[in-house]
């Protein structure tokens, strides 16, 4: 997995709430059996009209906005578990998504692909949108080690939370599979004592806790 | 310490807890399908990692399958390739597959419960957000992404932070015509689409206790639509009666042993939840949605809220509705009864009981898609197929179908569809389609009248 340490870049502001994974990547594009090419269809039905022409009103088609940070409204990534949504955002070229709230499954999928979901307060989200609206060249700094996001010109900043384990994974480019496969002995022991199935709690609880 | 049902199942499946980090959670059953598994198999191959516990994995083909002529080769080449890869991957890794045409084939969240694969107290995952359905049996069941599918393949475990606990209580007597779908649409309309984010939700109260297993599955299925990773209901006699005798359920002495265990799976009195909500059954009426997320719901006879933000206005513009408007009398040209939310036999029984002796309105295309081959067989055994046929409905073969429109079952641009599925997102049922979520009864009644109407007065 690609490492994520610190990112300073311009921002693409997507001012919409409850952006669901069906908008990020519509189901009809989920027939591929590899992870390539999903970026081409990122936000397909917002980005292109029926004839396949770019929709000029949509932010991804506006020349003044570019960069590897996607800024979005509350509850980003709700809906389906499709990891294709994270692949689409990543292969389009984004490295981080900033919102005031992320849906659980999307957040996990993003983290598993080195795409950093940065959750900020509604106030700070508002400041970010305002800063980018004022100047589309405004840069935002995301420092994962410091867990801090800031607006470069004004220096306004906010700290953000991330699971310490996930932080270590991102900074080092590790993924969960490496970790879990190193634990197979412990997993086998667990299977042995639990009978490999949902067994009565009483016996298990004393052993596990 | 007093424990919730969720705590009891979770804690008994923790292999190890990482200090300041997630738990290693053991997974009893891993369900897979064609859309979210191929990249996981590829990853394993690239890294030369074997599937750790193939006998705890069950595969089906459902998302990307046609609902017509399933005996013929799949026409869409990309779909055919995806299905072929699933077959090959299952064969290479010794995974049981109930593929297209197999008597056990069906939507993953319909076939696993009906085969007795889903059992109380288990941890179950699938690369599909509606895996929450299985919580109806008192399981911890949740949807995962493809990277996590790979993790479970490699270790039969997941690294996950323990979610917070939420309880939703509904007590009282439901009104005539109010179905489990209405109950969950009501709850989501009251709490909103992200109220459950970060939580696992237990449903409690006499309304859920009195529900059938199929009704409970409908409720738990939509837990994800309020953001909750999963929902669950304590197993009781209804659960035990449902599981007993099913193909893969334990038998004889083993069943008795498991039954004794299942009966202990309850939230302790005074166990604490991080969040709790309570509703009165009498306040719930048949529900419909008017917007582009499942939280945008109103009672069938209600009006669209006048107040809203920019996103609400965008949703109404997409749906071509106005604030303050009622949806009654809106002409509807499409209805869909199907999906992992409402494609079980009881859903078709309730629809058929309303439809019997009536004809669909001429303007309506009415699509009925059973959740599994077994449900399709049951429809025939009970003669419901005749009822649907005589009323002018189209009965198809099982699959996810128009819920997500990956196959040819699409709602045309600009058209409304009263649908028993779970998501009314923009374009969910086809580019430009407009989805109105409802119960099977509301969908059936809409097909007969050709418009949204208050049918409750005509119910016996």
Automatic annotation (TrEMBL), chain A:
Q: Report the gene name.
A: leuD
Question: One GO CC term of this entry?
Answer: 3-isopropylmalate dehydratase complex
Q: Which GO terms describe its biological process?
A: L-leucine biosynthetic process
Q: Which UniProt keywords apply?
A: Amino-acid biosynthesis, Branched-chain amino acid biosynthesis, Leucine biosynthesis, Lyase
Which CDD domains does the entry mention?
Answer: IPMI_Swivel
**Domain Aconitase A/isopropylmalate dehydratase small subunit swivel: residue ranges:** 1-121
Q: Which reaction does it catalyse?
A: (2R,3S)-3-isopropylmalate = (2S)-2-isopropylmalate
Entry annotated with the keyword Calcium? no
Q: Which Enzyme Commission numbers does its entry carry?
A: 4.2.1.33
Pfam families noted in UniProt: Aconitase_C
User: Which named protein is this?
Assistant: 3-isopropylmalate dehydratase small subunit
Its UniProt pathway annotation is: Amino-acid biosynthesis; L-leucine biosynthesis; L-leucine from 3-methyl-2-oxobutanoate: step 2/4
Automatic annotation (TrEMBL), chain B:
Q: What class of enzyme is it?
A: lyase
**Which GO biological process annotations does it have?**
L-leucine biosynthetic process
The annotation note on the cofactor reads:
Binds 1 [4Fe-4S] cluster per subunit.
EC numbers listed for it are 4.2.1.33
Pfam families, sorted = Aconitase (PF00330)
Question: Per the record's keyword annotation, is Cell wall biogenesis/degradation included, yes or no?
Answer: no
**Which residues take part in binding [4Fe-4S] cluster?**
340, 400, 403
The Aconitase/3-isopropylmalate dehydratase large subunit alpha/beta/alpha domain is annotated at 7-450
For this protein, what is any one GO molecular function term?
metal ion binding
UniProt keyword terms in alphabetical order: 4Fe-4S, Amino-acid biosynthesis, Branched-chain amino acid biosynthesis, Iron, Iron-sulfur, Leucine biosynthesis, Lyase, Metal-binding
Q: Which InterPro entries match?
A: 3-IsopropMal_deHydase_lsu, Acnase/IPM_dHydase_lsu_aba_1/3, Acoase/IPM_deHydtase_lsu_aba, Aconitase_4Fe-4S_BS, Aconitase_4Fe-4S_dom, IPM_dehydratase_rel_enz, IPMI_cat
Q: Which reaction does it catalyse?
A: (2R,3S)-3-isopropylmalate = (2S)-2-isopropylmalate
The parts of the chain that form a coiled coil are none
Pathway(s) where this gene product acts: Amino-acid biosynthesis; L-leucine biosynthesis; L-leucine from 3-methyl-2-oxobutanoate: step 2/4
Cofactor dependence: [4Fe-4S] cluster
Primary role: Catalyzes the isomerization between 2-isopropylmalate and 3-isopropylmalate, via the formation of 2-isopropylmaleate.
Which NCBIfam families did the record assign? leuC, PRK05478.1, PRK12466.1
Assembly notes: Heterodimer of LeuC and LeuD.
Family recorded in the similarity comment: Belongs to the aconitase/IPM isomerase family. LeuC type 1 subfamily.
**What is the protein's given name?**
3-isopropylmalate dehydratase large subunit
Report the gene name. leuC
């Amino acid at each position: 997995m690609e490492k994520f340490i610190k990112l300073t870049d311009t921002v693409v502001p997507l001012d919409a709430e409850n952006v669901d994974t069906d908008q990020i990547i519509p189901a009809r594009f989920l027939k591929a059996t590899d992870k390539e090419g999903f970026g081409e269809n990122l936000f397909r039905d917002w980005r292109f009209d029926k004839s396949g022409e770019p929709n000029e009103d949509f932010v991804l088609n506006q020349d003044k906005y570019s960069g590897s940070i996607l800024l979005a409204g509350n509850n980003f990534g709700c809906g389906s578990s499709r990891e294709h949504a994270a692949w689409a955002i990543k292969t389009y070229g984004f490295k981080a998504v900033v919102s005031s709230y992320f849906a659980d499954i999307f957040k996990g999928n993003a983290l598993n692909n080195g795409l950093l979901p940065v959750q900020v307060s509604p106030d700070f989200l508002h400041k970010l949108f305002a800063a980018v609206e004022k100047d589309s060249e405004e840069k935002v700094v995301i420092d994962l080690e410091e867990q801090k996001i800031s607006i470069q010109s004004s220096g306004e900043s906010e700290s953000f939370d991330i699971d310490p384990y996930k932080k270590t994974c991102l900074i080092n480019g590790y993924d969960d599979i490496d970790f879990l496969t190193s634990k197979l002995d412990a997993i086998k022991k667990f299977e042995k004592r639990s009978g490999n199935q949902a067994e009565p709690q009483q016996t298990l609880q004393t052993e596990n806790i | 310490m007093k424990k919730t049902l969720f705590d009891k199942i979770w804690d008994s499946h923790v292999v190890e807890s990482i200090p300041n980090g997630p738990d290693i959670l053991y997974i009893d059953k891993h369900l897979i399908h064609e859309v979210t598994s191929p990249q996981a198999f590829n990853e394993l191959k690239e890294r030369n990692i074997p599937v750790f516990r193939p006998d705890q994995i069950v595969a089906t083909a459902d998302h990307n399958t046609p609902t017509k002529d399933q005996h013929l080769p799949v026409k869409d080449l990309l779909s055919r390739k995806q299905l072929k890869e699933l077959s090959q991957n299952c064969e290479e890794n010794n995974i049981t597959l109930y593929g297209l045409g197999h008597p056990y084939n069906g939507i993953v969240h319909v076939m696993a419960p009906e085969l007795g694969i889903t059992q109380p107290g288990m941890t179950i995952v699938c690369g599909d957000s509606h895996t929450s359905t299985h919580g109806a049996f008192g399981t911890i069941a949740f949807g995962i992404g493809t990277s996590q599918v790979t993790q479970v393949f490699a270790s039969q475990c997941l690294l996950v932070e323990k979610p917070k606990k939420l309880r939703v209580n509904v007590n009282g007597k439901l009104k005539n015509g109010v179905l489990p779908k209405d109950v969950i649409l009501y709850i989501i309309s009251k709490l909103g689409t992200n109220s459950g984010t970060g939580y696992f939700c237990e449903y409690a109260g006499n309304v859920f206790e009195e529900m059938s297993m199929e009704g409970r599955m409908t409720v738990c299925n939509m837990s994800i639509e309020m953001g909750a990773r999963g929902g669950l209901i304590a197993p009781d006699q209804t659960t035990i009666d449902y599981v007993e005798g099913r193909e893969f359920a334990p038998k004889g002495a083993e069943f008795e042993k498991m039954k004794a265990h299942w009966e202990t799976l309850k939230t302790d009195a005074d166990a604490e939840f991080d969040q709790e909500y309570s509703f009165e059954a009498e306040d719930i009426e048949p529900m419909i949605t008017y917007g582009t997320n499942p939280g945008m719901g109103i009672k069938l006879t209600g009006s669209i809220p006048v107040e809203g933000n920019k996103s609400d206005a965008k949703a109404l513009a997409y749906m071509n509705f106005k604030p303050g408007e009622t949806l009654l009398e809106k002409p509807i040209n499409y209805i869909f009864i199907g999906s992992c939310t409402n494609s079980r036999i009881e859903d078709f029984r309730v629809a058929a009981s309303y439809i019997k002796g009536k004809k669909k309105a001429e303007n309506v295309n009415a699509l009925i898609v059973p959740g599994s081959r077994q449900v399709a067989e049951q429809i025939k055994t009970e003669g419901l197929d005749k009822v649907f046929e005589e009323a002018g409905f189209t009965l198809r073969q099982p699959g996810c179908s128009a819920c997500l429109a990956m196959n040819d079952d699409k709602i045309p641009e600009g058209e409304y569809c009263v649908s028993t599925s779970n998501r009314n997102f923009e374009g969910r049922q086809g580019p430009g389609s407009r989805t109105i979520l409802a119960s099977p009864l509301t969908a059936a009644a809409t097909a007969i009248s050709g418009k949204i109407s208050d049918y409750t007065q005509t119910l016996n």
